[in-house]
Every structure is written in C-alpha cells, then in structure tokens.
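Example record for the data management plan.
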Amino acid sequence: MRPYILAETNWKTVREIDYELAILPWGATEAHNLHLPYATDVFESEYFAWESAKIAWEKGAKVIVLPAIAYGVNTGQPDVKLDMNLNPSTQLAILDDLITVLNRQGIKKLVILNSHGGNDFKMHIRELNLRFPQMLLSQCHWFKMPGIEDFFEDVGEHAGEMETSLMQLFRPDLVRSLEDAGEGKAKVPRIPALREGWAWSERKWTQVTTDTGIGNPKEATREKGERFFRHVSEKVGTFFYDMATTTPEDMYIDPDQL
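Corresponding structural encoding:
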C-alpha cells in the first residue's frame, strides 16, 4: 500500500494525512501504431505519476495521486476505430467537479500530469483560476521536457521510439513484436506557416499517417525506456515537491535571486 496513491490507500490512512498537493494523471484511449495498446497514454500517465510522487513523498512532501482519466481530446481522429474522444468542454466540466472536492476539503494545489498531445489544459486553468481563487492549478507535459532527444535515435511523436521503449518497460506483455509495427511515416503540412509552427490547424490523422504512428519505433529498447523513465521521474518528482512545499505567496522571485 502506497499512501501517496489514492487508489491503493484507505480511509484509515487518508484521514490522518494533511495532503498538500493532488496529482491528476490524464491520458487518452487511442490507436498507437500496430504494436502498442490503446491505453499507452494512460499507462504512461500512471507510471510517471506514481514514481514521481514517490520521489516527492520521500523528500517530505504530502502528495496524493488521483486515479487517472483514461480519455482525452481526439477530435482529429473520428475515423480511427475506437479512438475515444472527450471534448475540451467535457474536460473542463470534469476538472470543475474534481477541483470543487479538493477546494472544499482544503487540498489547495493540483497538478494535471498530462500524457497525451491532444490535451492542453491551459485555457481550462485560466477559467478555473477565476472560479477557485484559493487553488493553485498547474499542468505538466512530461513529454515536452528538454533533452528527450539525448535518449533516443528518433524520439517520434506518437508510438515511436520513446513511447515504445517506455511501454517495453511498463507493460512488455502488451507490446507486440517490432516486426509487426508500422514505420510511423508521416506527411507534413503543404502550407509553410503550418510546417513552421507559427500557424496551427488540427491534423486529420488518417491523412497524415497510414498506421496511426508518427515516428519509427524500430530502435526502441527497454533499457532506453528505463534510463529515460528515471530521468523524467526525478525531474517531475522535484516539480511535485516544489509545488507541494512552496506557498502561493512565495511563487515568484526576482531574476537576480536565481
């Protein structure tokens, strides 16, 4: 029983702990090339949340990981069978309900640990900040951490080397042989502004990739996944600790204090 994971702990334990920070893992249910399970993003959100919370807990922070949300924004994939979609407005409603509970019970900080590229909670947080002025709300995209390219030959955006290596570590029983995997080739936008990233339009996924993957998984290994997992978990665990132990009044400092 890990007291920092709500799904595993119990009322006897919970009622005695003054939790400082709640962590909400958020994934998605969607196809991941031909070799990874639909719940890849869910597993990633859980494993990173659990390990990072352990690190923060052992440093002395009272954190609690909530059960993961298994569905994300998949509006660009309506024709991919069983890619399940939650609209952004639905995500806002879910967050509103959960934050209402935390706010009422005196847990005034929440980090959304996101593992799906289609999820972005920035606008949700802006709106919720006005509804819950005493709450400190944050999102964390672990897959956007600088330096990922140091661990992999071809990181890949979706079901590529990085995600395949992680799943070979987390749930090797659910990873098919890489001989079965597609190459993850992807088309790029015809319009330069979209390619360069200063303009944006939602991609129609099946026009971009034929196997639902973006990035070649062929060089993935469990060892790469383990090294990367440890690196990211240490950094995210430190972030959890900092969020839990820093008061809202002390969130900002002068640049010359860095």
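Summary line stored alongside the record: Strands lie at 21-26, 63-65, 109-114, 136-141.
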